[in-house]
Design goal:
By secondary structure, the protein is of the alpha/beta class. The chain is built from 15 helices and 14 strands. Helix 4 packs parallel to helix 15. It is globular and about 60 Å long. Its EC number is 3.1.4.46.
């Protein structure tokens, strides 16, 4: 990008919800090649005026990907690390046993619901490439150098264990179809196993039901993807997915339900039985947004680490333990949990939280849409984040491999001067404030 292209600056401003999707969709090359022409959301002139090197394509891409904003009062950060922080050893450290061994290795990459979630309202075809939370999606992700695939396991009103007491893999609380021209909505946990597996492309073609999905704004979409596949049970995932790929088993719960410990214990023991019977040497992580579930799964077993998921205050819940990274740290330390998985915006808004989490001897992963932007992932690597959960598995694994091994011929990492690094770490909290 030798000179400014008019359409680089003149595309209409995108709001914070759409900025990532447009950024990702409109990129000509999702690599770290800074010579490619990029079409990006409008960059605020105040930001442009304070960039140390306004012609730095990588710098602009990071800032634009995060969000245009005023930065006149950005606080000063005195010291920037000269090299990326030490990441985690993954597979070798998690072949049973909850202790994480630290080595100077690349950032941990986790495939979100396999090779990425299905964002049915998105204009990006990569987010509708393969059915999420399916054997096909898990194995497609395994073709790339991911360390884990993440998926959602639930039951009855709380964990997705069906009436047959069989843990199944599915993200949403409700499953939708159309029957006799009318919308039918059912709780996944009210279904038998046969009923659950009949939604979408079924294993028995005579029993298939069309699958619909409701988005957060209430709209109903046909659940159509390029490569469709049936849903599966937890046992089938262990038996049918490349055994070299680790599993990040997220234990999902209804945010609006108060659970008794005995209910949670029964559900967790059902899931643990499958894990203990079929995991063999596969690396496993348990994670949950539900504080009591995280505590209990830690008490019920000592073979696998437990990560606490937190929005880090980007959303507010009835349970105060879910509403800040400080609360997340406290919960982990009081209950022997090994790590926090934070919404990435919470980390960018408050970079000092990374050091605080590390000082507590906890591992830090992140999730969120910004984790599909290679430059934003690289910034986290510099800040000390140990792992990222991503949708764009191919793009991010390629980028991580490139910036983690600069000595390999053809590999590269984003090139920032010290002034640019300092600027970005001051700017990032402001870019994601709203």
């Amino acid at each position: 990008m030798a000179s400014r292209s008019p359409d680089l600056w003149d595309i209409p401003r995108h709001n914070s919800e759409n900025a990532f999707c447009e950024y990702s969709r409109l990129r000509i090359a999702p690599s770290l090649n800074t010579e490619k022409k990029l079409f990006l959301p409008q960059f605020h002139p105040d930001v442009k005026s304070v960039i140390p090197n306004p012609q730095s394509p990588v710098l602009l891409r990071v800032a634009m990907a995060l969000k245009a904003a005023h930065v006149s009062d950005v606080p000063t950060i005195d010291q920037i690390p000269d090299v990326p922080a030490v990441a985690l050893s993954t597979v070798s450290a998690l072949r049973k046993g909850t202790e994480w061994k630290r080595k100077s290795e690349r950032l941990v990459v986790v495939g979100h619901r396999g090779k990425g979630m299905n964002a049915l309202a998105s204009t990006d075809p990569r987010l509708q490439e393969v059915k999420e939370n399916s054997l096909r999606s898990f194995n497609d992700a395994a073709r790339f150098p991911v360390d884990f695939v993440e998926f959602d396991v639930q039951r009855l009103q709380f964990l997705q264990v069906t009436k047959d007491d069989c843990p199944v893999i599915f993200h949403d609380d409700l499953i939708l179809t159309e029957e006799d021209g009318k919308l039918s909505e059912k709780h996944v946990t009210s279904l038998t196993l046969d009923e659950f597996l009949s939604y979408g492309p079924p294993k028995d073609p005579l029993k298939g039901k069309p699958l619909l999905r409701k988005t957060k704004d209430g709209r109903i979409h046909n659940w159509k993807v390029i490569a469709d596949a049936p849903f599966c049970t937890l046992q089938e995932a262990f038996q049918g997915v490349d055994p070299q790929v680790g599993f990040n088993v997220e234990l999902k719960f209804n945010d609006n339900v108060d659970y008794k410990d005995e209910e949670l214990i029964h559900a967790l023991e059902t899931i643990l039985k499958v894990v203990n019977d079929y995991a063999n040497e596969r690396p496993i992580i348990f994670s949950s947004f539900q504080p009591d579930a995280a505590k209990l799964i830690r008490k019920l077993q000592n073979d696998y680490p437990v990560f606490f998921l937190s929005n880090g205050g980007t959303e507010i819940y009835r349970d105060p333990r879910r509403n800040s990274l400080d609360e997340a740290i406290k919960l982990c330390l009081e209950n022997g949990l090994q790590a926090i998985v934070s919404e990435v915006k919470a980390i960018f808004r408050n970079p000092s939280a990374v050091a605080k989490i590390k000082e507590a001897n906890l591992v830090l992963f992140t999730y969120g849409q910004l984790n599909n932007v290679p430059e934003a992932v690289y910034m986290q690597h510099i800040m000390g984040v140990s792992g990222v959960i991503v949708d764009l598995v191919q793009e991010i694994t390629e980028a991580v491999s490139a910036f983690s091994r600069p000595d390999v011929e053809g590999a590269s990492r984003p090139k920032f001067s010290q002034a640019e690094l300092s600027f970005l770490l001051r700017l990032i909290p402001e870019l994601v404030q709203h």
